[in-house]
Amino acid sequence: MDVPITLTVDGVEHRLDVDTRTTVLDALRERLGVTTVKKGCDHGQCGSCTVLLDGRRHLTCLSLAVAQDGAEVVTASGLADGDVLHPVQQAFLDHDGYQCGYCTPGQVCSAVGMLDEAKRGHPSHVTADLGAEPDLDDDEIRERMSGNLCRCGAYPGILGAVRQAARS
Amino acid sequence: MRALDYVRPSTPEEAVAAVAGDEDAMFLAGGSNLVDHLKLGVARPGRLVDVSRLPLDEVATHDTDRGTVLRVGATVRNADLAAHPVVRSRLPGLSRALLAGASGQIRQQASTAGNLLQRTRCVYFQDVTTPCNKREPGSGCSALEGYGRYNAVLGASEHCVATHPSDMAVAMAALDTSVVVLGPDGERRMPSTDLHRLPGDEPQRDTTLAHGELVTGVEIPLTDLAAVSTYRKVRDRASYAFALVSVAAAVRTAGGVVEDVRLAWGGVAHAPWRARRAEEALRCGPVDEQAVAAAVDAELAEAETSEATTYKVPMLRGATVETLLALVEGEDA
Ligand SMILES: Cc1cc2nc3c(=O)[nH]c(=O)nc-3n(C[C@H](O)[C@H](O)[C@H](O)COP(=O)(O)OP(=O)(O)OC[C@H]3O[C@@H](n4cnc5c(N)ncnc54)[C@H](O)[C@@H]3O)c2cc1C
Ligand code: SF4
Ligand code: FES
Ligand code: FES
Fold it and tell me: Is there a smaller number of Cβ atoms within 10 Å at the N or the C end of chain B?
């Protein structure tokens, strides 16, 4: 069954008809040609398909496009302001937060969403005091970014990048 | 995947009618479990009834005849619930359980009802090329002789030895949570410990819900005991892994003996396991290593382990001792 939906991706509105079984990930990549969003596992286990959807970090492989009709999607390439990189993107460059780069768009989106959660005071599994403002030390960053795997093992660079972005 | 019809009703009543009247229909919430099952061929609905935008996203305190409860709507996201100020201050064990589950992204997506009703992670259940009584009644249970590290040790049957994977549901079991359910004939409430069932000879049924019954929310009593609850999860890696075993607990002592205690385990059974026998054994006694270990052993009297799951017995003992001792130490601080 085909259903008409609207998705706004990186500020551009798209109207398209999707088969009800299409994931947001496949709609973005196969239908709209938005290949910044990467398919890793396709089962919610790696985080490479992470975008910001209506402001929250979101796994596009685990949601159906028809259910996200009207959503505002921001991918890693929509974060920059013209030629000026987003502070998180710049931090990944400064710290060599990648090797092959396949997981990077998901890491970057996840970091942006995670920093916003921390700013709003959300605790994590390693937060000792649930009542306190979170302090993004390395353990906090590792825990909050644990949904994004990197097969190249660029974790030290990713940690450094997110640490820099958290301080700025 | 078979052809799929999709509807998005605007009221809970319409959602119930849409599923109750169609054997082939299923509710869709955040999709983080169900969309995976569609791809794997584990779930084969003909129609999805999307409940994610129903007006069931409130978290609020209510005074009831059972005292003050926190009412949590079915579509409240796991991340929002974990971060809610009342949950953090009055139900810390629930916050900790939610934060121990899945990943940051998934918690942003997953709903309260979807989390309760997520299905087992038994590898054979998820692999349609293997026999599995839960997926295909009568086909056999591959986990009995196969990979068994996550298998149940309590309440299993010869038909299924799967465990329930939710962390949140274990904390809810310890905290005397009620589940609010809407069916074609109206609303009913039940203890969350009556929602999930043991496999018996019908492992295809995870819960006591009838087809078409919609979970609209949960109610968690805001007691003094719940305010000192906690959750401990033991897993193969530090983050983003399902529980091997887990412990949700709350305890209050006076003059060195237990006045009141709540204890539930995850990773041990087809349902979150409220450890009532252990609670009974602990009441009016001290909280020390020996007493807690004895209470755990009382609860495990009927445990059945295999070579793959014997490790869970000492792990449960250790995790429960550490959790309760830490809670009592915190009481003094
Ligand atoms: C890689 C990975 C790791 C994970 N790790 C953990 C973990 O460590 N701990 C943990 O607890 N969980 C874990 N999860 C599971 C996750 O918590 C669940 O997928 C999630 O909670 C399901 O919520 P949802 O809203 O996305 O549900 P959906 O996938 O939309 O639905 C799940 C089920 O609930 C039913 N349903 C949904 N809403 C209702 C309702 N209101 N009434 C009746 N039925 C309903 C659906 O029909 C479906 O059968 C993990 C998931 C993934 C993919
Ligand atoms: S344990 Fe249950 S879910 Fe796993 S294969 Fe056996 S019947 Fe299926
Ligand atoms: S592709 Fe979505 S989590 Fe791996
Ligand atoms: S940089 Fe290669 S997978 Fe992360």
Answer: C
